[in-house]
Every structure is written in structure tokens, then in C-alpha cells.
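Entry type: protein chain
Record version: 2
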Amino acid sequence: MTKTTILLAGVAAVVATVVLVRTARAQSLPAYRAQDPVDEEHVAKYVDSFLRADAQTRQLLNRSNLQLFAEGYRPRIGVPHDPEAETKVSDLQTYFARKVYLDLRALSPFKEQTFRDFLDGIADDSGETIMCAGDLAEKYHLNVQGRFVFEKELAKVPAGANRERLKECWLNDAVLGAEFRIVAWIYGEIFGKDYLPAGGTSPADAKR
């Protein structure tokens, strides 16, 4: 699989988020209102309910990501507010919920263009992590077709800088992808229209 194909997979993930926004009512994803308090406890409960309701977002908590986090790996891209600036976090879900909280707090009071700029930024950062993974997948002939078993493919990369880089990119992409889905859904809830990448339009904007 080429780097171009890997990058196209990232574009497909954005499209999947749009589909999520259009169909999520049927999946009973949690509602979010503009007047909801942006405090850490409320956001943590919201993130937990979203993870329980959406299987794709819940992939953040798969075994490989939990293990990488436990080993001390952390996202390096797309983290404008460090969730561990004041205290270390012992588990990935708590880290992730705090990241979402800090980002939402920085966006308050919510304005549509600011929200869009933030989501565009996550999409750009995700492109970097996807290209990182694509470089290494191409170099070491990783099997990314069909079912991808991270631990099995990681073993093909010799110990050293590139293996460490793949671990970081893998976890980083998982965190950004999960946050993108949640914040894109919140955008739709608050502003009554679907998020699409810069320059995109949605025929479903008026049909939510």
C-alpha cells in the first residue's frame, strides 16, 4: 500500500465522520447543547457516553493503544493543551477526556468559524500522522490490507528509532481520530449543520 493510499484512507475517515453526523440520530449518540457546561466532569461523562455509543470511536481503547499509553507513549501532534501539564494521568480514557475538555474550554464561547478552524487543524494533524505511518508501512512492507494486527506488524520493524516513531504515530492518530469524531458531532449539534473539510458543502445541512 502506497503513501497515497494511506493518505486517501485519511480522507475516507473524514467522509465517514460526515456519514456519522448524518446518521448518528439512529445510533443514539449523546446530545450536546451549546448551553451545556464546559467543565471537566461534565465533558468526561459525555466522552464516556460517546465511547459507549460509537464503536469506531471506541477503537481508541483497543488493546494496542492501551498498551502504548501504559508504556509511556503520548501524542506529539495536535495537542495544543497538555492533559498532563498539572498531573500525570494513569489511563488513556482519562487522558483523552481531559484533552477533549481542554480543547472545548479553549473554544468557549463557541463560535462556528473557530470550531471549524479547530476541526480543520485536527484533520491537518491527522494527515501528518497518517503519512508517518504510510512512510513506515511502505518501507517495511507492512500488511495494511484487510485486518491489521498492530503487534504483528510492529514486529517487522527493527528495534530503534523507526519502531518508536511508528508507536507514537499509531497512538497519535488514534487519539486525533477519536477526538475528530466527537468534536465534529458536537459541531453539528450546536450549529445545526454537518462539518465538512474546508471548502466542502453539505446538502444535509438544513435537514438535521
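Comment: The chain has one domain: 3-207.
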